[in-house]
Structures are given as C-alpha cells and as structure tokens.
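Encode chain A's predicted structure.
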Amino acid sequence: MEQGNYSVGLDIGTTKIVAIIGKENEYGKIEVLGIGRSKSLGVHRGVVNNITQTIKSIQQAVEQAEADSGLKIGSVVVGIAGQHIRSLQHSDYITRANSEEVINEEDLDKLCNQVYKLVMLPGEEIIHVLPQEYKVDGQAEIKQPIGMYGGRLEANFHVVVGQVSSIKNIGRCIKSAGLDLGNITLEPLASSDAVLSQEEKEAGVALIDIGGGTTDLAIFKDGIIRHTAVIPFGGNVITEDIKEGCSIIEKQAELLKMKFGSAWPGENKDNEIVSIPGLRGREPKEITLKNLSKIIHARVVEIVEQVYVEIKNYGHEEQKKKLIAGIVLTGGGSQLKHLKQLVEYITGMDTRIGYPNEHLAGDSDQEIASPLYATAVGLLMNAIENKRRSPIYREEAKNEEELVLEGFAEGRVNEKSKGTRKSVFDVWSEKLKDFLDNAE
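Encoded structure for chain A:
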C-alpha cells in the first residue's frame, strides 16, 4: 500500500507499544502527525513471548495513531532489543578489479554484503553491519572512501547479531497486525538518533536507555558507533522488587515507584510514610519512603554497575577512548528521581537526561518530548531516512533515465536507481517476507 510522504515508527516495548506517524518539514525537522500507545502484554524483557497478545497491542496502538492523524498506516520500522542481542568487531576487505576507477557506493555495498555472509552461531542472524573506519591500500583512518583511488578497500565493522527466531516473531506480529515490515533497527541505535547531538557523538558518549524490560547501551566516539549492548533488566525489575519487598500488588508498586520513588536513600526522612489501601477491606499498609528508596537504590545500583562494566569493556579507561561527553540517560526509567546523581556517583562521568526533542519541529506536542518516546522517535527518524534513500521517493514522475542522469549530475554515480540493485536489507526483508508467507 502506497503511503503519502509520511513514515511510521513502531516501538514494541516490554511495558508499552508506541506507533508514531510523522514526516520531515521544510527545515529538516520532524513533524509528528499522530501517536498511539497501548499497554504491551506479550513482551518479556524485550522479546515477544506471546504473539496473540502482541498483535492485539500493536493493533490498538496503530488504530489510535491512525485516529489521531487521520492517516492510514502501511509500512513500519520496528525496533529490536532483548538479551539475545550481541555485538562483535570484524574487519574485512575486498580487492577491486580496476584500481584506476574511483571507489563508489557499489564497492562499499560489496564490502558490507561480504560481512553479511559471516558464519554465525546456529540460530543467529546479523541485524546490522556498521562500518567504522576504512583503509584504502593500507592508508588508515578514512571515514568516507567514496571518490578515492585504490585497489584494496578494507574496513572495521561493528556487527550486531540477534536470534533468528526473535526477529521472525517480530515479523510475524507485524504481518498479522496487517502491516508491512519496512526495516528492523536495534533499539539503542534508534534512541541515540533521537537524543544525541553530533558533538556528543564526536566527543564520546554512552547512551543508556532504561526501558521497562531491558536497559540498552550504545557508545559513540569520533562520531562512530563503537559498542552496543542490551542488559536484560529495566524498570520492571524495580517494580517487582517493590512488590515483593512491600507485599503489595504490581499496580500499587508501579504507582509508588513513579510518585514517591527515589534512587537515593539518604533523601527521605524516617517519618515519611505512605499508606496503601488494603485489598478487599483488609487493613491499609504503611510503607516508609526510606525503605522504598532503599529497595529502589539496591536494584538501580545493580543495573548501573552492569552498564558500567560494558562501558569499561569498550575501553573508556584508555586515554584515547575516553568518553568526554559522559553519559546520556533516556527511556522511561530515566525519569526516576535522583537517578542522574546516582549514575554520576557510581561512574564518575558527567550525566544528563536525554529528551528526544533535538530533531522534533518546534510546535510538537510536549508529551512526545518525554524520554519515554526516545526509541519511537528514533524509529520514526529511521523510517524517514529509509524513505529518503528510496528512489521512489525521489519524484515518482521521473523515469529511470532521468533518475540515473540526476545521480550523475549530483556526483552520486548511479545511486541505486529503481531497477538497478537491491540493498542487503531489501534482500533480507524479502527473504523474511517469503518465509512468513510460507509459514502461513
């Protein structure tokens, strides 16, 4: 189904599912046209574990977004997370047949495609191949080799790997909800698009996205992604702890956490007490805020320390790899009181809360600029970017030759014009679609 000039991001989270429709305005900012959210019931720690429930939740969010915007949703870009995600470094090279010609986009694609053929563990599949630096004929630290001469093109890659079954389950949910799967993106990458500035990525920054089921980490330095990780703990574990520690039901635990929770126990006086109504006529329970923040503190420290281990694994302690811009916290969990101070205390790194308003148009709804929507906004940006790259977007009225000529004129030698070549992801998406069609 052909969509107008708008795109859709769909964030399938552990606690909520968000569908967000938007387009780019003339200033290059993102205008949100509609948003829908529903409670996510079939996802556990970032992974779909109940297909029927997830489909229902997706449909609810999508219907709400459609009603909000008056538009119809066709193809969506979806995020993927979960503890099955891992990343590795890999370097690869190609030898070019004719070193008298300059390196073009096709050579880079060929090099990337080669990495997609890497043999993974059984049941794993490559989700992203992200080039870091290139080498041309042994000359290192080249960020953009297009237009250079050279016979041997090498690159270091950051490769993100996930479980085939999890990816297929997400595809299955999207298809059954009556949508097309446009692309799958790693959630921490989407969040980082939404909340980080280019300066931070250059200086070196760690983005920590604390969601309901997982805490995602993405590390950038010199403008390049260096490390990604998904830690299978998030806000839900904190709620679980409160529920068990105070013997109350989940709904009450969640409310307590949001209204009175703090990550810093020294903050509360001993005599501050919250009274919680008992179930079905039982006596109300009294809980001291000091105890509440002790429970929260213990779990948050555990999450932050695990993230800090990953930051150290990347090599933050080496002078050359130092993350000068420190840490940016986002996601629903980042709204916990005094979390910023706790993170600074544990890691010794500058910390700020990341809001996804960096790329949003000025008149956007305040609600969308909340850290809750960081991943959804990032996925929407990804969808818009994909659309911009697709040749159909570049004026459908033009015929093939005009497109190709225009490519030459702009110095982009025959940039993937309609019939020329498919990107790796298109091929992969088609394979996945075929698989889903056959699975019916």
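The first helix runs from residue 51 to 69.
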